[in-house]
Write a structure and sequence with these properties.
The structure is a homodimer. By secondary structure, chain A is mostly helical. Chain A has a domain at about 70-210: Tetracycline Repressor, domain 2, CATH 1.10.357. Chain A contains ten helices and no strands. Chain A has helices at about 15-30, 40-45, 50-55, 60-85, 90-105, 110-120, 125-150, 160-175, 175-185, 190-205. In chain A, helix 5 runs antiparallel to helix 10. The longest helix of chain A is centred in the middle third of the chain and has 27 residues, at about 125-150. The first copy, chain A, is globular. Chain A starts with 12 loop residues before the first helix and ends in a 7-residue tail after the last helix. The structure holds a DNA duplex.
Chain lengths: ~210, ~210
DNA sequence: ATCTTTTTTGATTATAAAATCAACAAAACT
DNA sequence: AGTTTTGTTGATTTTATAATCAAAAAAGAT
């Protein structure tokens, strides 16, 4: 049986390979969606036999959940950031959240991809993600948007729509990098590209919602 | 053999069922992605046997292509709109394009979903979509954005990023309706929701990119 | 060094879905 | 009405992949 939850410094061999599997799995699941991904595909990319995956994870579903919890850790980090900024104005907090979202989205592009993929499909996996990874944070951002509207600093659109539009807009360039490369011959994932993108998101996308 | 391309008024029985199959297929493919969809699932939703699908379409790939060409027709319509507005300023044309994009996205939500799904995954299907459905139009919009920047009316970000951000932002609320319902208990797909969304896209999202 | 436990694997089984096909039914044509 | 063409189907085959398992290899304990 695999040792679960031993988050100690010297992770045994088992935990190290499990982590590698999770990493590969997250990448593939987020790009392709659950059913496009095969256990043997993950195994190959991780340099393991497919049977090994079933030693560490009971089945494909469990592996998916386990991989998604990696994103949960990233989100939790963002939430701690927001906790630390609770004294700032709602708009300032939103700005901080967006900047952080960009940072983690470039570092963990799986985040936005998973949201897009499962958020469109609906179903059980989305419900699970909502409960274990995304829901709390999204509702928190919506509350910030609502507060900013009530304070008269954001244009009065439904806060849920604002939050989704901001995130979908910001993640678009990251998620759709393959499309951009193909259609425009333009690769946004470079140092300059990321810098331009950050400025675009903060100084055009977000600022469009701010009242003059 | 099925009669192909007989786009006459009185479509024979064959063409009518083929059209129904394409319709169901487009909906499912766009929500779930290629591999999540099964031939028998489409057959069931269309009230047909799965063998009938193979009578009308050689294989699953062909059915996918055929369904996607339905989106091609929608895009072509948009392009004719733009042709008719060629005398307007680049920014006015972008505005027209966005308004039209909203209209067709609510009417054919498959469009944005397919872009998101395949645009993230990359690969052969994306290349096919780029060539047969999306590429020309996206490059045209990017050219408009570039012209608007050169005319000094849009903020100077990479036009490819602007175009993708506008579309991803506008499509977000539509694509992610299932997520919004689950997370916020908020359904954007109502008469008021759509109206608020149109205003949000034109008066906040797009206007954020316009120079003051 | 030997023994025990953990980890990995090749081979196999089970299962779900795509594709094929021969037979049947409906429409169109004369 | 009879004939041909088009459209539809149930049953079958093929194929891809998830899941299992017994045996081997590696790691760790004594």
């Amino acid at each position: 049986m695999a040792a679960l939850g031993s988050a100690t410094v010297s992770a045994g061999k088992g935990e190290r390979t499990a982590a590698r599997i999770r990493e590969v799995a997250l990448d593939q699941f987020s790009r392709l969606g659950f059913e496009r991904v095969t256990m043997s595909g993950i195994a190959e990319a991780a340099g393991l036999s497919q049977a090994t995956l079933h030693y560490h994870f009971q089945d494909k579903d469990q592996l998916w959940r386990s991989a998604m919890l990696g994103l949960g850790a990233v989100i939790a980090e963002e939430e701690r950031m927001l906790d630390a900024a609770q004294d700032a104005s709602p708009l300032a907090q939103l700005r901080i959240a967006m900047r952080f979202f960009l940072r983690i989205s470039w570092k963990h592009p799986a985040l936005g991809r998973v949201v897009a993929l499962e958020g469109m499909a609906g179903g059980e996996r989305l419900a699970w993600l909502d409960e274990h990874v995304l829901g709390h944070r999204n509702r928190r951002l919506a509350a910030l948007a609502r507060a900013a509207i009530e304070a008269g600093v954001l244009k009065p659109f439904p806060p849920e729509m604002i939050v989704i539009t901001l995130q979908a807009g910001a993640a678009g360039v990251i998620n759709l990098a393959p499309l951009m490369r193909g259609t425009f011959g333009f690769d946004p994932d470079t140092a300059e590209g990321r810098a331009a993108h950050e400025s675009l998101v903060l100084d055009a996308l977000l600022s469009g919602f701010v009242k003059n």
